[in-house]
From TrEMBL:
<dbReference type="InterPro" id="IPR013249">
    <property type="entry name" value="RNA_pol_sigma70_r4_t2"/>
</dbReference>
<dbReference type="InterPro" id="IPR013325">
    <property type="entry name" value="RNA_pol_sigma_r2"/>
</dbReference>
<dbReference type="InterPro" id="IPR014284">
    <property type="entry name" value="RNA_pol_sigma-70_dom"/>
</dbReference>
<feature type="domain" description="RNA polymerase sigma-70 region 2">
    <location>
        <begin position="31"/>
        <end position="92"/>
    </location>
</feature>
<dbReference type="Pfam" id="PF04542">
    <property type="entry name" value="Sigma70_r2"/>
</dbReference>
<dbReference type="Pfam" id="PF08281">
    <property type="entry name" value="Sigma70_r4_2"/>
</dbReference>
<feature type="domain" description="RNA polymerase sigma factor 70 region 4 type 2">
    <location>
        <begin position="131"/>
        <end position="177"/>
    </location>
</feature>
<dbReference type="InterPro" id="IPR036388">
    <property type="entry name" value="WH-like_DNA-bd_sf"/>
</dbReference>
<keyword id="KW-0804">Transcription</keyword>
<protein>
    <submittedName>
        <fullName>RNA polymerase sigma factor</fullName>
    </submittedName>
</protein>
<comment type="similarity">
    <text>Belongs to the sigma-70 factor family. ECF subfamily.</text>
</comment>
<keyword id="KW-0731">Sigma factor</keyword>
<keyword id="KW-0805">Transcription regulation</keyword>
<dbReference type="InterPro" id="IPR007627">
    <property type="entry name" value="RNA_pol_sigma70_r2"/>
</dbReference>
<dbReference type="InterPro" id="IPR013324">
    <property type="entry name" value="RNA_pol_sigma_r3/r4-like"/>
</dbReference>
<dbReference type="InterPro" id="IPR039425">
    <property type="entry name" value="RNA_pol_sigma-70-like"/>
</dbReference>
Length: 185
């Protein structure tokens, strides 16, 4: 999805709450935002956390996005602001990233995604082995969601994180897990 028209169409669908559009935007721009933050922070965990928060905030605020801006630039700007806030909070030794949003709540509906179907078709032993290949924080959200069957709100409460972050983490974790499963096929 390189061309501008396809991206604009995907953004339009995302503004209408289409889950597949959100997922496609995450897939398309994840490496750009993560790479930018990795250079800035020189820390993989911080870069990943900031990238998750960036998409969380972007999906929550997608209605405010104006087509006069390049979408990637808009995302990078959000991530810069999140990083600046993180640095300020660390200086004050306070880490409190609460937030709520309506748009992201529409992001994940009950219809199983392609990744969900692929994950569900796996033998349990193989699936558990594949989950162990994910980073620990992705393993945790996958386990809480699919094995403990917790709601997004319950996971957010248990991990003391905003629900938006949980949704983006789960989206990313499912994509990474699907890639692991597909690479074996």
């Amino acid at each position: 999805m390189d061309n501008t028209e396809a991206i604009e169409e995907t953004i339009t669908r995302a503004k209408m709450g289409n889950q597949i559009a959100f997922s496609r935007l995450l897939d398309t721009f994840w490496n750009d935002v993560y790479g930018f933050q990795l250079k800035r922070t020189e820390n993989e965990n911080d870069a990943e956390d900031i990238t998750i928060q960036t998409f969380s905030k972007a999906f929550d605020k997608i209605d405010t996005y104006k087509e006069t801006y390049v979408f990637k630039t808009w995302l990078i700007t959000i991530s810069k602001n999140i990083h600046i806030d993180l640095v300020r909070k660390r200086k004050r030794n306070i880490l409190d990233t609460r937030g709520n949003g309506e748009a992201i709540k529409k992001m994940l509906d009950d219809a199983p995604s392609m990744e969900d179907r692929l994950i569900q078709e796996q033998n349990l032993a193989d699936l558990l082995r594949d989950i162990k290949k994910l980073k620990p924080h992705y393993q945790e959200v996958i386990n809480l969601r699919y094995f403990n069957e917790l709601s997004y709100a319950d996971i957010a409460e248990k991990l003391n994180e905003p629900i938006n972050n949980i949704k983006v983490k789960l989206l990313r974790a499912k994509k990474l897990l699907a890639e692991i499963i597909s690479s074996k096929a």
